[in-house]
Amino acid sequence: MAVACIIVQAVARTIPALIGLGESLLSALFETLLLLAALRLVLRARDLGSRFVQAASGLVGCNLIFTLINIPVALAFGKIPLEAGRLVPEQVTPTQMLLSPLILALGIWQLAATANVLRHSLNLSFAGGIALIFGWIVLLSLLLSLIVGPQGG
User: Alpha-carbon distance 132 to 52, whole Å?
Assistant: First the structure.
């Protein structure tokens, strides 16, 4: 399932961006391996290492399902109108405006589903699962900026 998730993510990442499949595949592989390593560390730190397979399956499966849901939305949304790294509001299409609330709702739904997996895996509260996700996003952003450098500057 992890391989399928990596491949689907790699393909999905090429839709809104001007990056190649190779770069996208490496990015998805790096992110997934980092996620699984961090999950293993946190589970072991909480003496819950026996839950790794279930937790990893839940996180990877959740990511795979939401990526598959988001592909048609991203295709319909099209390219984000950017100029010098900034949004050009005059070029935003009506379709993009209509799809924006759906994208936000899907993001919140994915956040809630992932937090629920973490909550059950790590015996946390729901808020603890959300806090862990935001911490993960910050850590991943820092690591990626160290590896590939800041984007768009």
Answer: 16
pLDDT in tens, 86-103: 888 889 999 999 999 999
**On the CB side of 52, how many CA atoms lie within 13 Å of its CA?**
15
pTM: 0.80
3-state secondary structure of 2: helix
DSSP result, 80-110:
--EETTEE-GGG--HHHHHHHHHHHHHHHHH
Rounded CA separation 63/139 (Å): 18
Q: What is the pLDDT of residues 1-43, one digit of tens each?
A: 778 777 888 777 777 666 677 787 887 888 888 889 999 999 9
152: phi > 0 → left, psi -120 to 50 → alpha, else beta; which? left
- For residue 87, how many other CB atoms are within 10 A of its CB? 11
Over its C-alpha atoms, the chain yields an Rg (Å, rounded) of: 17
User: Which residues of 7-72 form beta strands (DSSP E)?
Assistant: none
